[in-house]
């Protein structure tokens, strides 16, 4: 399969009054055609900033990409000018943001907001764009599409708004869809419907999806390949079945252990002790060492590199360096 997106050693930093925050620090990943890659991790792990970097939405007074490459269709996205990037964004790469209410324009009708990318990128006339908007609303499973097209965002529920965001994102048949926590704050029934819709869209158009989530249930249901991030770095990656059956990194093991299992009673749910480290206080070490029950001396003084472990997984952990683990 061809790589639709290939990120190599991406570094996205933010300058603050207290110092430099290395929000994304050397991340490499790829998304192949027709594949769903899930990026999972706690808040503050760098998942969303990775996505925003791909979309070219971090450049500003504080944030910028300081190193690495983001290859899409043979071009390095950070090298492109604003106009070139604008032609790709929304047309070839689309994004569903976490909060649909804050992403949609509150003073424009739903139909107008779906029409905008159709007129901008596909050069459709207003009449044709409006007809296509009605089709898209029906396609995402909302009844009375004509009525919805004439509604304002505040008149719709959260689940309907998220569907509208999906309609806008897929309106130009993008090659890559980035979904940032697309089911956050939705009840489980609506969440299942949204995920099922994304899966159908992917299968119908052979579109690639980069799905960002902290929910391992979503990962199990949607992913072909999984990237586990912690404190701006990839700590483990692999095909979804391998990662769930044989997690390597203590952080991944902790995430899986903390997920409730249907039909299994627990006196107390497991949680990973401690919290993600302050990004301004990171030292040369494994960033997870303060929370890790298997921490060794070397974990506190040297950073492990992401290396192949077995045939289909990669892990950044000193436990898998045989000489070090043997003497620990």
Automatic annotation (TrEMBL):
<dbReference type="InterPro" id="IPR013563">
    <property type="entry name" value="Oligopep_ABC_C"/>
</dbReference>
<keyword id="KW-0472">Membrane</keyword>
<dbReference type="InterPro" id="IPR050388">
    <property type="entry name" value="ABC_Ni/Peptide_Import"/>
</dbReference>
<dbReference type="InterPro" id="IPR003593">
    <property type="entry name" value="AAA+_ATPase"/>
</dbReference>
<keyword id="KW-0813">Transport</keyword>
<comment type="similarity">
    <text>Belongs to the ABC transporter superfamily.</text>
</comment>
<keyword id="KW-1003">Cell membrane</keyword>
<feature type="domain" description="ABC transporter">
    <location>
        <begin position="5"/>
        <end position="256"/>
    </location>
</feature>
<protein>
    <submittedName>
        <fullName>ABC transporter ATP-binding protein</fullName>
    </submittedName>
</protein>
<dbReference type="GO" id="GO:0005524">
    <property type="term" value="F:ATP binding"/>
</dbReference>
<dbReference type="InterPro" id="IPR003439">
    <property type="entry name" value="ABC_transporter-like_ATP-bd"/>
</dbReference>
<keyword id="KW-0067">ATP-binding</keyword>
<keyword id="KW-0547">Nucleotide-binding</keyword>
<dbReference type="InterPro" id="IPR027417">
    <property type="entry name" value="P-loop_NTPase"/>
</dbReference>
<dbReference type="InterPro" id="IPR017871">
    <property type="entry name" value="ABC_transporter-like_CS"/>
</dbReference>
<dbReference type="Pfam" id="PF00005">
    <property type="entry name" value="ABC_tran"/>
</dbReference>
<dbReference type="Pfam" id="PF08352">
    <property type="entry name" value="oligo_HPY"/>
</dbReference>
């Amino acid at each position: 399969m061809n790589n639709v997106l290939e990120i190599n050693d991406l570094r996205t930093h933010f300058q603050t009054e207290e110092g430099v925050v290395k929000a994304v620090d050397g991340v490499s990943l790829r998304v192949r055609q027709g594949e769903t890659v899930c990026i999972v991790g706690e808040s503050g792990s760098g998942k969303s900033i990775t996505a925003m970097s791909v979309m070219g939405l971090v450049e500003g007074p504080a944030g910028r990409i300081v190193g690495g490459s983001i290859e899409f269709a043979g071009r390095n996205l950070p090298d492109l000018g604003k106009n070139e990037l604008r032609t790709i964004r929304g047309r070839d790469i689309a994004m569903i943001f976490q909060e649909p209410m804050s992403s949609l324009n509150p003073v424009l009708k739903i139909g107008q907001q779906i029409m905008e990318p159709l007129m901008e990128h596909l050069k459709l006339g207003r009449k044709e764009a409006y007809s296509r908007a009605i089709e898209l609303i029906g396609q995402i499973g909302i009844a009375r599409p004509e009525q919805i097209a004439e509604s304002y965002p505040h008149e719709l529920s959260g689940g309907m708004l998220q569907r509208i965001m999906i309609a806008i994102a897929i309106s130009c048949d993008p090659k890559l869809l980035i979904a940032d926590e697309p089911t956050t704050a939705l009840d489980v029934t609506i969440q299942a419907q949204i995920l099922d819709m994304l899966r159908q869209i992917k299968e119908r158009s052979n579109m690639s999806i980069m799905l960002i989530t902290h929910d391992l249930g979503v990962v199990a249901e949607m992913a072909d390949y999984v990237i586990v991030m912690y404190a701006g770095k990839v700590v483990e990656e692999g095909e979804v079945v391998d990662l769930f059956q044989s997690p390597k990194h203590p952080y991944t093991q902790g995430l899986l252990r903390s997920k409730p299992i249907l039909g299994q009673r627990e006196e107390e749910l497991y949680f990973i002790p401690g919290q993600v480290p302050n990004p301004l206080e990171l030292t040369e070490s494994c960033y997870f060492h303060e929370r890790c029950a298997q921490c060794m001396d070397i974990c506190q003084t040297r950073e492990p590199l992401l290396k192949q472990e077995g045939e289909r997984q990669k892990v950044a952990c000193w436990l898998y360096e045989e000489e070090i683990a043997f003497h620990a």
